[in-house]
Amino acid sequence: MAQKTLAQILGDFVYELSYADLSKEIIEKAEISIADGIGCALAGCDLPSSRIARKVWKELKKEGRSTAWVDGEKGDSQNTAWLNCLLMHSILHDDMQESTVGHMGSFVIPAALAVAEEERKGGKDLLTAVVAAYEVSGRIALKSGLPIVKRGFRASPVFGPFAAAAAAAKLMGLSREQTQHAIACAASFSCGLLEAVNTGSMEWRFQNGGALRNGLMAALLAKNGLAASPTALEGKCGFFACFGGPEVRDSVLSHREEITQNLGREFEVGKNIFKPYPTCGYNQVGVEVAVAMARKFDIQPGEIEGIHAIVAPENKNYPGGDFHGPFARLDQALLSKPFSLATAFLFRNITVDMYLSKLNAPEISTLAQKVTSEGKAGMGFLDYKIEVKLKNGKTVTGDHHLANMKNYSLDRKMETEKFCGLASNVLKKEEAAQVVEAIFQLKDMPNLDGLSRMFGKIQSR
């Protein structure tokens, strides 16, 4: 009997996974991921890119049961998932998956919710699909994520179609073989470059939406008879070889057992990294360290001679991270270490509003010019060290040990507080708390109507 391909193994996993297979802890992490994603969408719902997305959605949408989170209006699943994806990813506040070096939540959550509503599925089905979708993207990226990013591809839209396809396949009730074909087909629908991030232009936000559509289409095509190449991932002209090069394909093949072992026992969603701040994932810990240093040493901006950040080489080399300004566009500031660290030392925080009201603030521009960085081998994804040289000749230092790592994993209480803060621009605190509570009750919902009606409150304000 021929050895199963990776798409077939992952397809089997998605098809066979049931709610009963999930621990209480994994179910709660899935609920937290859903709440965090929706909160991020509401926080960024009025940004320029979000206004574009909302306008286009109204032109494209068809009749359907899926709900636009921002106002409760209904539309078809494909276009509504596209809109919610773009809102969720609009301010780079959405969760991170370390294996993919990307934002899989912006695919998983919008796709799963939209399809679940369209298919009239309940909360248990939704949560199972969410777990399955994170798993598929994470396993595929396990030995290929960083090498693919180093070649200039943007991880989110490259790996995102797999997540969207897996979520849709599970909720649409695809057969075992159809689910395998959906995942394999998604390999041919991956896309996305890092140049937009490198120059600070806007289209990186819309990459995820296009890739999400591709993943949903892969599932729909498989449902209607498309038979994809079984070796779409590991073949000589497959996903790993084309996006990563022959050496990445060889590495994946040699680590095949490691990639697939523990499927169904250790879940990627349990490793989700949540962001305390609206900035690039590589800047998160740096901002928290800067805020902690400013408070601990009572550092005043006028006392700073220079700020030096020491990070992992992958962090140092990520496109857009070394941009010092001037910041003509919000997109340039979101990726910039100089902007994020300068803002953190100046205001001891970063909020969505700061990008809108302080983008060209002279004090940020001046301090951003004093930021330098270097990559140091051996440092991990969340490792960070900052050295601040003061004008009096002293140097103070701080590192990732100053960061509260609980902020990156979150429990139920912390997520509720975070959601209320994220949604404060569109919901009263008590209304936001009700939405979060409903999400934590998903497992008891026979359908999603109760949750969907809550988004109509935003429209009425």
Topology at a glance:
Elements: H1 6-16, H2 24-43, H3 48-60, E1 66-67, E2 74-75, H4 77-88, H5 105-118, H6 123-141, H7 145-150, H8 155-171, H9 176-188, H10 195-199, H11 203-223, H12 239-244, H13 246-254, H14 256-260, H15 284-296, E3 304-311, H16 313-316, H17 330-335, H18 337-347, H19 352-357, H20 362-368, E4 371-375, E5 385-390, E6 395-399, H21 412-422, H22 429-439, H23 449-454, H24 456-460
Parallel strand pairs: 3-4
Antiparallel strand pairs: 1-2, 3-5, 5-6
CATH top level class name of the largest domain: Mainly Alpha
Shape, principal axes of CA atoms:
globular
Query: Which percent range fits the helix content?
Result: 40-55%
Sequence of secondary-structure elements = HHHEEHHHHHHHHHHHHEHHHHHEEEHHHH
Q: Give the low-pLDDT segments.
A: none
Strand content: 5-15%
End-to-end Cα distance, whole Å, is 61 Å
Rg, please? 21 Å
**Which structural class do the helices and strands define?**
alpha+beta
